[in-house]
Every structure is written in structure tokens, then in C-alpha cells.
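CHAIN AND CONFORMATION:

***
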Amino acid sequence: QVQLVESGGGLVQAGGSLRLSCAGSGRTFSTYAMGWFRQAPGKEREFVAAITWSGSSTYYADSVKGRFTISRDNAKNTVYLQMNSLKPEDTAVYYCAACPWGLSSANSASYTRYTYWGQGTQVTVSS
């Protein structure tokens, strides 16, 4: 089992940057693919980015491509989401999630592939 704790959220002006962290527990953390999702008020949870267990492949939603970067440090059991050029529409609760299976461009956005979820961290971007 993996427990996930997100941090790094906050209030930032449009055009600013934030880096989210997701700390995982358990010796098997490095074997999980990881993803970031977000949910804005009144909207469904949506895929943001994902990374394979080795970090060799990454996947992004079109809405964040070129602005967000996902990375991981398996020695620290941590996954990061660097968010640059933030927009008001990026405002949401951001969740990290762990996937025990492989990921590909075809399935990384499917939240059903992720079995463990963190509690979320609020990101608010003001205009």
C-alpha cells in the first residue's frame, strides 16, 4: 500500500509559478507510475500529467503542455509538478495518484488506472 501526501499549493498571480510535491510512503513507491489530476469547483476531475516508474516517459494534458513539468526522485519517494505561466483556469485542487501498472499515452489519463490517491492541495491563480 502507498500513502500519498501533497504539498506546495497556494495563491499565486497569473503568470506565476508553483511547485507541487507528492511524498509517498512505502518501500515500493519507486515501482509505481505516478500521475497528477485536478478538480475545479463544479467540474469533473481531469488529468494533468503522468510519469512512468523510471521517469523515462512523461505524459501531459494539452492544456498544460509546455507550461507544466512532472518529475520524480525515487530516492526521496517524491513526485513533483512544476507549474509555470499559471492561468486563472488552472485553479483547482490538485491530487497525486499512484498506478501499479504500466502507463502509456493511451491510458495515462484514465483515473481508473490509479489505485492510491492523496488528499489534494489547493492551487488558486488570481487574475
